[in-house]
Specification:
alpha/beta; binds NADP nicotinamide-adenine-dinucleotide phosphate; Rossmann fold
Length: 327
């Protein structure tokens, strides 16, 4: 794969406003740079422009670089999609490769922050924190009493991690060392861990044996609706589902059924199948905690992600190996 070097003719497009330090570095480093000034996802016309007018593009979540988009641009000028984010299920990587583009992501930078949000959701849904907060804000709290708003005691319970990768392991570590939980998981391969964790034989086996089922697999065709009615039905009626991965990994209609029928106790969600649309049925249920995709939302982490994306751009522009190529 060739590139056009760091000269001012090399055109770089960053598809969203970034944190100040990332924007400052980009403006200092690249002679011909555009930073898009809106947070809307790229339209089809913009993606075609990305491929035809720029050498390097930094896209992110929601920018659907599908096979159809690549098919519309016969000879793309763009040679690198340096994705901002670890999840790249919005990019058809095979189609990108066939069109001559490399794709990179930002693994690692996101891990701890996303694991922290998983813990936030585990605790919020188990301890009814959203419901309690709403009660106080409505002015309806009548004072402490021994049987008020009883939730699920999280310490010492069993957590099931679906996808024991970087983030899954960081969640498991917090659950084991912080909350004394038993850890079970499913992944495609065994993991060598420095704390006890049992790999379940199947997702259904995992679902029926845990108090918290936490989803941490990548999105994409392979994991679409991995958490379906069968898996939800296997869960204990006292158990909670937490999803910090990608919305479409959980079949949202089946989740709504499971919550409405009481076949699971609650859910904590950071991501949604048709994001940013959140079904009214979920909004109306008190036992569901809904966060607006906050996994990596801290200044420090978003800056680290941006710098990691720019490290990939810089490596590409100087003909070095890409630090974070996507398989
Ligand atoms: P990772 O290190 O690649 O881990 C993914 C794990 O999922 C691996 O353990 C993998 O198994 C497992 N896996 C993949 N396909 C599977 C399947 N079909 N069945 C069971 N397990 C499967 O990725 P990561 O860095 O932890 O990130 C995971 C995902 O979190 C990202 O892709 C992204 O979509 C999401 N995410 C969300 C947020 C947020 O803001 N909410 C932030 C960051 C990331 P093997 O290890 O055996 O290959």
């Amino acid at each position: 794969m060739t590139n056009t070097g760091t000269n001012s003719a090399t055109k770089i497009w960053i598809a969203r406003p970034m944190t100040a330090s990332v924007e400052a570095r980009a403006r200092e480093s690249y002679g011909s740079l555009e930073i898009r000034d809106t947070n809307a996802v790229l339209s089809e016309a913009e993606m075609i422009r990305a491929l035809t007018e720029f050498d390097v593009v930094v896209p992110t979540l929601g920018d659907k670089f599908s096979a159809e988009i690549f098919a519309k641009v016969a000879e793309p000028r763009c040679k690198l999609l340096a994705n901002f984010g670890v999840g790249y299920n919005h990019i058809d990587v095979a189609a990108a490769g066939a069109a001559g583009l490399a794709v990179t992501n930002t693994p690692g930078a996101v891990t701890d922050a996303t694991a922290d949000i998983a813990m936030t959701l585990i605790l919020m849904t188990a301890r009814r924190a959203g419901e309690g907060e709403r009660l106080v804000r409505r002015g309806e709290w009548e004072g402490w009493h021994p049987t008020q708003m009883l939730g699920l005691h999280a310490t010492g319970k069993t957590v099931g991690i679906v996808g024991m990768g970087r983030i899954g392991q960081a969640i498991a570590r917090r659950c084991h060392f912080g909350f004394g939980m038993d850890v079970r998981y499913v992944a495609r391969s065994d993991k060598d861990l420095d704390y006890p964790a049992v790999r379940a034989d199947s997702l259904v086996d995992l679902a029926e044996s845990v108090d918290f089922l936490v989803v941490a697999v990548p999105g994409g065709a392979e994991t679409l609706h991995l958490i379906n009615a069968e898996v939800l039905k296997a869960m204990k009626p006292t158990a909670h589902l937490v999803n910090i991965a990608r919305g479409e990994v959980v079949e949202e209609a089946a989740l709504i059924d499971a919550l409405q029928s009481g076949s699971i106790a609650g859910a904590g969600l950071d991501v949604y199948e048709f994001e940013p649309k959140v079904p009214q049925a979920l909004i109306e249920m008190e036992n569901v905690t809904l966060l607006p995709h906050l996994g990596t939302a801290t200044e420090e982490v978003r800056s680290n992600m941006g710098h990691m994306a720019l490290d990939n751009v810089d490596a590409f522009l100087t003909d070095q190996d890409l630090p974070n190529p996507v398989a």
